[in-house]
Specification:
PLipase_B-like; 15 helices; binds 2-acetamido-2-deoxy-beta-D-glucopyranose; lipid degradation; 20 strands; Penicillin V Acylase, Chain A; alpha+beta; 478 residues; 34% helix; signal; EC 3.1.1.-; eight-stranded antiparallel β-sheet; Phospholipase B-like
């Protein structure tokens, strides 16, 4: 009895101090998704001489410690998003390899802040793969590097599949981002197979003085080095980065793809490490564009608010501080272009527009007098069926399982105010919205693969304190 209890405790929480002559720091990994909705990973490392050692060590430990979640996330991705296909179509394999080789060559031959970041990210990714395969390489859970890379490259692949005329899956994701002076909130929509999550906090003290954000946190998935669910906190410069994705209805846009480019998941990380202001962030993000994973990025330091809209041939940056924010009192993002040229280039249906989209209307109606973090968090997870709005199509946080049984919808919520960012706190929740509905339960869907997930999804909001990496339970989501 005692020993099995001990085993349980050991396997749920991992922590390690490191001081090996190359790096010093600590790693914490709490596998608490079944009890809180989130696993929590914190990697604090400082380099002794060579910054590359920080990224290699971080990758290695993350790959080893989160290997079980990585395998489960991989299987969930294959069955939830790639329709059971373990391999990319041949032409996409070639594209991904060419791009990877090009990134390696450029990052080895150019010693600039930008390309050093590319080099560091490749090192982190490759070491994470080695850590994973160190344990699983000789088992049935072994993955090739190509397969492992799907997890970080997921957003970019989302645009690459249709470019070769193939449907990856239906309804891959939409999101909300909302800003009211002093408060940022975001919620992600996806197939429920993507609910296996890790909140990641990387604090890397580097010799590289061009890195102005050593400490960044993001809501993520196992094996994914970016926030595919679109929420980053840059603690040093006190900025928040969110996005909502665009749909492409114009096949001609795929002609933009060129492998000599930096994929979106890397550009986000590079901009987040190097930018001091929202403007710098949107500028750096626009370098070496790949045209894959086209999004509306909303970046704020609670003073300025910038929007960067990317759509294949086009990239537009808007300072919304004195325009949309001043006129409307808030900025919302819901997968619809603001810029007309971007809207037209994607051939968005004429039945919608930035101002008249169904979620634009709901934000306008419901945001009214909301002031607190709790109220704004509730807003981005709102799901109220009325004569005008249904539970799936157009809800602020859809529950499509309640409509046609499709296990897709809003899966989380994240909120951070200006006070909270100063005090190193963030609020999050994981679960399809249960505000006006029964909680989602996998028991009703025994035939849909959902590796490593608990059945019932009715988790409360939590507050994370980044100063000591502890969590506090807050309240249920209603
Ligand atoms: C969480 O629950 C699922 C389903 O019961 C199980 O497969 C998985 O091993 C659990 N994860 C942990 C870390 O205990
Ligand atoms: C973590 O730090 C906060 C103060 O920021 C404190 O209130 C809390 O009790 C600490 N938690 C633990 C477990 O030490
Ligand atoms: C991680 O686990 C440790 C040990 O159980 C606990 O003290 C700490 O509060 C946990 N932190 C998070 C963010 O879950």
């Amino acid at each position: 009895m005692m020993s099995s209890l001990l085993f349980l405790l050991v396997s749920i929480s991992f922590s390690l101090e490191i001081d090996n002559g190359k790096v010093k720091g600590s790693i914490i990994y709490n596998r608490t998704a079944n009890s809180t909705g989130w696993n929590f990973l914190r990697i604090n490392l400082e380099s002794v001489e060579n910054d590359e050692d920080v990224f290699a060590t971080a990758g290695r430990y993350e790959g080893e410690e989160s290997r079980e979640e990585i395998y489960n996330a991989y299987m969930n991705y294959i069955y939830g998003i790639q329709g059971g296909r373990h391999f990319l179509p041949k032409s996409l394999q070639i594209y991904v390899h060419n791009q990877y080789n090009w990134l390696k060559e450029q990052s080895q031959s150019q010693n600039t802040p930008y390309w050093r970041m590319v080099k560091y990210l490749l090192i982190q990714l490759e070491n994470m793969y080695e850590g994973y395969n160190y344990h699983y390489g000789k088992t049935e859970k072994a993955l090739s590097f190509d397969q492992f890379y799907y997890l970080s490259n997921m957003g970019d692949l989302q645009d690459l599949w249709p470019s070769v005329g193939q449907v990856q899956t239906q309804g891959i994701g939409n999101c909300n981002s909302f800003y009211k002076p002093g408060i940022v909130a975001h919620s992600t929509f996806n197939v429920y197979q993507t609910m296996l999550r890790i909140y990641k906090s990387y604090n890397f003290k580097l010799k590289d003085k061009d890195v102005v954000n050593p400490h960044l946190s993001f809501t993520a998935r196992p094996g994914d080095l970016e926030s595919k669910d679109d929420f980053f906190v840059l603690w040093d410069t006190q900025m928040v980065v969110t996005e909502t994705s665009f749909n492409n209805y114009n096949k001609e846009n795929y002609a933009y793809f060129h492998y000599d480019s930096v994929p979106c998941w890397m550009r986000v990380n590079i901009a987040s490490r190097l930018a001091k202001t929202p403007q710098e962030w949107t500028d750096i993000f626009g370098l070496h564009r790949s045209g894959t994973h086209n999004n509306q990025w909303v970046v704020t330091d609670y003073n300025k608010i910038f929007m960067g809209e990317e759509a294949f041939f086009h990239y537009k940056v808007h300072d919304l501080t004195n325009t949309l924010l001043a006129s409307q009192g808030y900025v919302a993002s819901y997968n619809v272009p603001l810029d007309q040229e971007i809207f037209d280039s994607l051939k968005y249906p004429k039945t919608t527009s930035y101002n008249d989209d169904v979620r634009a209307r709901q934000f306008r109606i419901y945001q009214g007098n909301l002031k607190t973090v709790k109220e704004v968090g509730k807003l981005v997870r709102y799901n109220k069926v009325t004569a005008e709005f249904d539970a799936c199509d157009g809800a602020l946080s859809p529950r499509c399982d309640l409509g046609n049984g499709y296990t897709f919808g809003g899966i989380d919520g994240k909120v951070i105010s200006q006070d909270m960012i100063k005090n190193k706190k963030v609020h999050l929740i994981s679960s399809p919205s249960y505000q006006n509905h029964d909680p989602f339960n996998w028991k009703a869907y025994p035939n849909i693969p959902h590796y490593g997930m608990t059945d019932e999804w009715r988790f409360p909001w939590y507050e994370i304190d980044e100063t000591n990496f502890t969590i506090k339970e807050l309240y249920l989501d209603y």
